[in-house]
Amino acid sequence: MMNPLEWDEPVPANVLVSALWSLLHTLYSWIEYLSLMVRWCHKVMLQWSLGGWLVTAREKHRLKQSQLAIKLQLQNVDKVPKHLVVVLGPEEPNYTMLSNYILWAYAANIEYVSFYDHNGLVKRNHEQIMRYVWDVRLDDTSDKLEWSRQQAVPSSVECFEAWPRSGRRTVVAFFSPEDGKPGLVNLSRSIGVSVRKRDLALSEVNIDYLDRQLQAAHNHIPDPDLAIYFGNICSTYGLLPWQIRLTEFLPLERRLRDSNEQHFVNCLLKYGKCEQRIGT
Fold this sequence. Notes:
By secondary structure, the protein is of the alpha/beta class. Helices cover 44% and strands 10% of the residues.
């Protein structure tokens, strides 16, 4: 039988530590659960917005203001890229954010904007971007965009096919690894077949000829002038190896989901100061 005098002894320290750790573990579990719920709700809302259900007037106003800010900051910049490529590395595609880059590119007078990720997710799911841009319907922008003919147009966005092909506009394209080295291999094979059949003279095969054939394969989109990437890792991830020999790569220094129009403008301002000295 326990001595009554032992009842007044203090609780061992290890018992207190164990109880404290149990309490902290329970608290952490609840915080983690709530965080998962918040992320899940955000994901659901994002999917709804891509369906056009939550593209609110406030969101449209924010995008319009971002376009005006870009135009104001670049109004005295003489050098802007003709073709901009947005390169995704390890981050997951955020289709709403990528759609913003189309609207920003138009505001910056960029004629071509392309998207590339080494998993091919953006190209396979490009219809989500097209629907979002169509649902936004910004004045002076939505009727000045043009989608590369190599992309499928969603049936719910019929008017995309009727968008003008003259005047100032921004052409949007999507690339994946299959457009890189495999494209070069296929072109080489077709040239070899043509030479063997004497449909093409070997003397006609030169750099200019290859440039023309590759541009024709990509709807005559010019070679990229600028490629922007996210984070601190500079890698081409297999992006169009022939077409990027003169491309300037600049970091956005932010993750895709954390980027905004000011980071975009900073990259363009930095590009405007770049000097290319070919062969010197």
